[in-house]
Design goal:
Number of domains of chain A: 2
Strand order of the largest sheet of chain A: 3-2-4-7-1-8-11-10-9
Mean pLDDT of chain B: 91
Mean pLDDT of chain A: 97
Number of helices of chain B: 2
Largest interface: A-B, 35 and 35 residues
Number of strands of chain A: 11
Order of helices and strands of chain A: EHEHHEHEHHHHEEEEHEHHHHEE
Radius of gyration of chain B: 16 Å
Helix content of chain B: under 10%
CATH class of one domain in chain B: Mainly Beta
Strand content of chain B: 35-45%
CATH superfamily of the largest domain in chain A: Thiolase/Chalcone synthase
CATH architecture of the largest domain in chain A: 3-Layer(aba) Sandwich
Radius of gyration of chain A: 19 Å
Largest sheet of chain A: 9 strands, mixed
CATH architecture of one domain in chain B: Beta Barrel
Oligomer: heterodimer
Low-confidence stretches of chain B: none
Structural class of chain B: mainly beta
Largest sheet of chain B: 5 strands, antiparallel
Shape of chain A: globular
Strand content of chain A: 15-25%
Distance between the termini of chain B: 45 Å
CATH topology of the largest domain in chain A: Peroxisomal Thiolase, Chain A, domain 1
Chain lengths: ~375, ~140
C-alpha cells in the first residue's frame, strides 16, 4: 500500500448561493484545488453529495461535474453516505491512490440545499434515517438528535446549559474564518434564550443548512514534491458503520461507529488520542460533539460536555475542536461537510489558518458523521516537513 | 403516488400488529423483523413473534417543523419506546399532551393514522403509543 498526501485544497464560501448552481459550486472548489496543486489533469474524481437527486432533480454527478470542469472522459463517480458523503468520497480517493490503481485523484464534496426549502428539504434530510421504521413516524433529522440528547440529559444528569460551550466555541472560531456562514461570536445568554427547535435542542445547538463545495487533490507521497512543498500526509483513514436506526443500537448514547473508525485510524497512524493536536468533529448538533469526543477517546462516557465547560476545546485548550467554526458556524452543506473538515485540517497543518492558527499543530483528526451515527469516517493527517 | 401502496401493504403485520421475530438460536427478540440476527448472525427461519405493545418511554421530543405529509399533525411528539420484551421502537405518542410526556411513562400500542401521502392523499395507518389505560 502506498503512502498518500494532500497536495491541493479548494473551497467555496458556505452560505446561500442563490446565483450559483450545483455544478458551478462544484467547479469553483475543484478548480481552486487544482490551481493550488498546479494541476491540469487528474486520474479520477470522487464526488460526495447527499441530496442532488431530491433537491435539484440531478443524479449522475460524476459525469456532470467532470464534463463541466473540462475533464470529460475521466473516471468519475458520486459517493453517498448521507452527511458523511464527502469524507466517504475522500476515503475512496485515498483507496484509489494507496492501492496504486490511480495516481492523481480529486475528492470533491458539494451540496446545493437552497434549490428547495421547507418541508421537502426536511423530508430529504430525514431520508438518512430508516424510511420504513423511523421516517414514516414523522421523524425529522433534528428530532433524531433530540431523542438522543433528551436521554443523555436524563442518563448523565447534565443540563442544556452544559452544551453551550460547544456552540460558543464554534462561533468564536467562525469569526476567524472568511468562508464561514456565521462570522460573529455568540454569548451564553443568547444560547440559553434561543428558541426550541425540538426539545431539548434549541436553535443555537443546531448547525445551519447551506450551499457549499470543497475539494482536495491526493497523490502518492513520494510524488508530492513535484507539486508542492507543503504536502500533508494521510496517516490514518477509516470508515465504520452502525445500525441505520437509533432504536436498533444496543446503546443509543454511544457512537459505536465513531469508536470503531477512530480506533482503526489510531492504529494505522500508530498514535493515541493524546497525540492529536486538534479535532475537526461533526457538531451538526451540540450533542454530537459530546458523543464524538467520548467515543473517540477524548472524554469518558457521559463526560463529553466537561471539556466544553472547562475550556479544553478552545484554540488554546487541550483538544481544540471545530477550529474554523465547525458545522455550527462554518455551516453544514451536508454532503460537502466532510471535505470542509479536511480542507480546514490541511490549513491548520500548513500554518494557513490565519487568526485561528493552532501553534505547532502537527497531527490533526477529522470525523464526519452520517445520519444519527450510522456511517462515521475518521481521518488523521500529519504535517510532513 | 399510487405505486407506494405496495410499500406500506407489505409491512401490514408490523404496522398493525407489531409482529417481529425471535431468533431460534439466541432467543433475541427483534422489532422490526430482519433476516439475520444482529446478536448472533443466525439466519435460519425465524418464527413470527407478536409483541405485547406495552412498554415505557425511553426518550421523546416534539416536532414543530414536520416533513412533507405530516404538517396537519404538528406539533406532535415522537418517542423511543422500550417494549417490555426488550427492543426499542420509534413511534409517535398520542392521546397525551406534549408537555406531559416524561421518560419512564408507561405506554401501550394503538392503531392510528400515520400520514397522508402524495397528491392522491393515500392514508397510511400504523402504530402509535398512548399512556397505558388503568386496568380494571
Amino acid at each position: 500500500m502506498r503512502d498518500v498526501s494532500i497536495i491541493g485544497i479548494g473551497q467555496t464560501s458556505v452560505g446561500e448561493h442563490w446565483d450559483r448552481s450545483l455544478r458551478h459550486l462544484a467547479y469553483d472548489a475543484l478548480a481552486a484545488a487544482m490551481r493550488d496543486a498546479k494541476l491540469e489533469r487528474a486520474d479520477a474524481l470522487y464526488v460526495g453529495n447527499m441530496l442532488s437527486g431530491e433537491i435539484s432533480g440531478q443524479a449522475h454527478l460524476g459525469s456532470l461535474i467532470a464534463d463541466f470542469a473540462g475533464l470529460r472522459g475521466m473516471e468519475a463517480i458520486k459517493v453517498e453516505a448521507a452527511c458523511a458523503s464527502a469524507a466517504a468520497a475522500f476515503r475512496q480517493a485515498y483507496i484509489g491512490v494507496a492501492s496504486g490503481l490511480q495516481d492523481i485523484v480529486i475528492a470533491l464534496g458539494v451540496e446545493k440545499m437552497t434549490d428547495d426549502v421547507g418541508s421537502r428539504l426536511t423530508a430529504g434530510l430525514a431520508s438518512a434515517a430508516d424510511a420504513d421504521y423511523e421516517v414514516i413516524h414523522g421523524i425529522t433529522f433534528v428530532a433524531l438528535n433530540a431523542l438522543i440528547m433528551q436521554r443523555y440529559l436524563y442518563e448523565y444528569n447534565v443540563t442544556r446549559e452544559d452544551f453551550a460551550g460547544f456552540a460558543i466555541n464554534a462561533h468564536a472560531n467562525g469569526a476567524g474564518n472568511p468562508n464561514a456562514m456565521f462570522q460573529r461570536p455568540i454569548s451564553k445568554k443568547a444560547f440559553m434564550k434561543s428558541g426550541m427547535v425540538a426539545d431539548p435542542i434549541g436553535l443555537l445547538d443546531a448547525s445551519p443548512m447551506a450551499d457549499g463545495a470543497a475539494a482536495v487533490v491526493l497523490c502518492p507521497t513520494d510524488q508530492a514534491r513535484e507539486f508542492t512543498d507543503n504536502a500533508i500526509r494521510v496517516k490514518g483513514s477509516a470508515v465504520a458503520t452502525d445500525s441505520l436506526s437509533i432504536h436498533d443500537r444496543r446503546d443509543p448514547l454511544w457512537l459505536q461507529a465513531a469508536q470503531d473508525s477512530a480506533q482503526r485510524a489510531y492504529r494505522q497512524a500508530e498514535v493515541t488520542p493524546e497525540d492529536i493536536d486538534f479535532f475537526e468533529l461533526h457538531d451538526a448538533f451540540t450533542i454530537m460533539a459530546a458523543l464524538s469526543l467520548e467515543a473517540s477517546g477524548f472524554a469518558e462516557r457521559g463526560q463529553g460536555t466537561r471539556l466544553a465547560c472547562d475550556g479544553e476545546i478552545t484554540l488554546e485548550g487541550k483538544i481544540p475542536i471545530t477550529t474554523r467554526g465547525g458545522l455550527k458556524a462554518r455551516g453544514h452543506p451536508v454532503g460537502a461537510t466532510g471535505l470542509y473538515q479536511i480542507v480546514e485540517a490541511t490549513q491548520q497543518l500548513r500554518d494557513e489558518a490565519g487568526d485561528n492558527q493552532i501553534a505547532n499543530a502537527r497531527l490533526g483528526m477529522t470525523q464526519n458523521i452520517g445520519g444519527s451515527g450510522a456511517t462515521i469516517v475518521t481521518h488523521i493527517f500529519e504535517r510532513v516537513s | 403516488m399510487t405505486i407506494e401502496i405496495a410499500r406500506h401493504w407489505r409491512l401490514k403485520s408490523q404496522r398493525y400488529q407489531l409482529v417481529g421475530e425471535v431468533c431460534p438460536k439466541c432467543s433475541n427478540k427483534m422489532f422490526p423483523p430482519r433476516d439475520v440476527c444482529p446478536e448472533c448472525a443466525d439466519d435460519s427461519a425465524q418464527p413470527d413473534f407478536k409483541f405485547s405493545g406495552r412498554g415505557e418511554v425511553y426518550s421523546h421530543t416534539t416536532v414543530h417543523n414536520p416533513p412533507d405529509g405530516y404538517q396537519e399533525m404538528a406539533p406532535y411528539t415522537v418517542a423511543l419506546v422500550k417494549l417490555e420484551e426488550g427492543p426499542l421502537i420509534t413511534a409517535q405518542l398520542t392521546d397525551v399532551a406534549n408537555d406531559a410526556v416524561k421518560i419512564g411513562l408507561p405506554v401501550e400500542m394503538v392503531t392510528r393514522k400515520l400520514s397522508t401521502q402524495g397528491d392522491e392523499g393515500l392514508i397510511v395507518y400504523g402504530y402509535k403509543f398512548r399512556p397505558q389505560l388503568a386496568t380494571a
